[in-house]
UniProtKB/TrEMBL annotation:
Signal peptide (residue range): 1-22
Keyword Transmembrane helix: yes
Coiled coil: none
Transmembrane segments annotated in the record for this chain: 46-67, 79-98, 104-122, 171-189, 204-226, 257-281, 301-318, 325-343, 355-377
PANTHER family noted in UniProt: CEREBLON, SULFITE EXPORTER TAUE_SAFE FAMILY PROTEIN 5-RELATED
Location in or out of the cell: Membrane
Protein name: Sulfite exporter TauE/SafE family protein
Family, similarity comment: Belongs to the 4-toluene sulfonate uptake permease (TSUP) (TC 2.A.102) family.
Main localization, broad class: membrane
Top-level lineage group: Eukaryota
A Gene Ontology biological process term: protein ubiquitination
Bilayer topology: Multi-pass membrane protein
Keyword Transmembrane part of the UniProt annotation: yes
């Protein structure tokens, strides 16, 4: 019976990972499946979810960097650099809020916020669909007037015009940011008798290290902003990189701080609701006006950093059932590739990147239903067990 439940859970996770391959992580779908279908407790389900989100995000990033060298679908490292420090800081603040706020309030806030985000994402999808339809109509008229079609440029570029899928300098900076926040999280981690250092929870040193994340995130973001502006002044004619001219022209129109602010809010809500920030930062980037392909690739890249931090921390703190979690992660890895291939073929066939937006919208709508029901069950369980359902102290 247990084996059958595990197989059903694996199949459902495969479907969820395929649907979530547009850069939203899928943690809000994995958690109820592992808890309710596979029958694992909530704590274990959370660790499994971190592994599965990491597996799915890793396949997305590898596919984008290695197997699909399309400039229109490449990762925007500038957005990732500006967003990652603030997102990691927001996750820490959100986790603290998760401890203090009652479960029923978190569930209600999540349903409200994600419901609004789902509506806005569907709206962005229809807006993108309309713009694509207009572009197709306009191209048809121009083509009929000219009597000939322009030859399309190949997707796989070479030479100086295409800088390559991996920008190693920016990748190194992202890894340094990740490692810095990771060390701080590990130092103050408190998982019962599993401690890296003997730091008393909520002691003076604990709060100093925790609050140090604020100037750390501000410092990283300020340095990245300064470096970006310095590079823009030095090479004003070379801004057309592998992200395409649309992304960079759009970034110029917006205040640079919009990206770290959006990432901070997404990180707070992600930590508060116990899901990856991809489902929250993805709609924000779409609303800002970043093209759907770039949004999907960049979000997956950012989710890989945030989810891998949770996964490695669970490993260091001695999580159980690592082999089972790795199997589920492998399922999500291959399922995400399947989903990516299907989405990319659909985009190429119909010429509509809005399909990616609708894919994100469907996952978000399913997440509203799953997490709301899952949260309601958890709240009812707390009520039946007579647990405290009010606000709590952080320690």
């Amino acid at each position: 019976m247990k084996t059958l439940r595990t197989l059903i859970a694996g199949l459902l996770c495969f479907i969820a990972a395929s649907l979530s391959s547009a850069g939203v992580g899928g943690g809000s779908l994995y958690l109820p499946i592992i808890n309710l279908v596979a029958g694992l407790d909530l704590k274990t389900a959370s660790t499994f979810s971190a592994f599965m989100v990491t597996g799915g995000s890793l396949s997305n990033v590898l596919y984008t960097l290695v197997f699909f060298a399309d400039p229109k679908s490449s990762i925007d490292y500038d957005i990732a650099l500006l967003s990652e420090p603030s997102m990691l800081l927001g996750v820490s603040a959100g986790v603290l809020g998760n401890v203090m706020l009652p479960e029923w309030l978190i569930t209600a806030l999540f349903a409200l916020f994600l419901g609004v985000s789902t509506y806005k994402t569907f709206e962005a999808g229809f807006r993108c669909w309309g713009a694509e339809s207009e572009e197709v109509r306009r191209s048809g008229i121009i083509g009929a007037q000219d009597g000939e079609e322009e030859e399309e440029e190949p997707l796989l570029l070479s030479g100086e015009g295409f800088q390559g899928s991996i920008q190693w300098r920016k990748m190194v900076v992202l890894v340094v940011v990740w490692l810095t926040f990771f060390v701080l999280h590990v130092v103050i981690a408190d998982k019962g008798d599993k401690k890296i250092l003997q730091i008393r929870p909520c002691g003076v040193l604990y709060w100093l290290i925790t609050l140090f994340q604020v100037p750390l995130a501000i410092g990283f973001t300020a340095c990245i902003l300064y470096q970006n502006r310095k590079m823009q002044h030095q090479t004003p004619d070379q801004e057309k990189d592998n992200q395409g001219i649309i992304v960079h022209s759009r970034m110029k129109e917006l205040p640079a701080v919009i990206f770290p602010l959006a990432a901070l809010i997404s990180g707070i809500l992600g930590g508060l609701f116990g899901i990856g920030g991809g489902m929250l930062i993805n709609p924000v980037l779409l609303q800002i006006g970043i093209p759907p392909q770039v949004t999907a690739s960049t979000t997956s890249f950012m989710v890989l950093f945030s989810s891998s931090m949770s996964m490695v921390q669970y490993l260091i703190l001695g999580m159980k059932a690592v082999e089972e979690a790795a199997i589920f992660a492998a399922v999500c890895f291959f399922a995400s590739i399947v989903g990516l291939v299907l989405i990319q073929r659909a985009v190429e066939k119909f010429g509509r990147a809005s399909l990616i937006v609708f894919s994100v919208s469907i996952v978000m709508a399913l997440s509203v239903v799953s997490i709301t029901c899952f949260g309601a069950i958890d709240v009812w369980r707390e009520y039946k067990n007579g647990e405290d359902m009010g606000f709590k102290l952080p320690c």
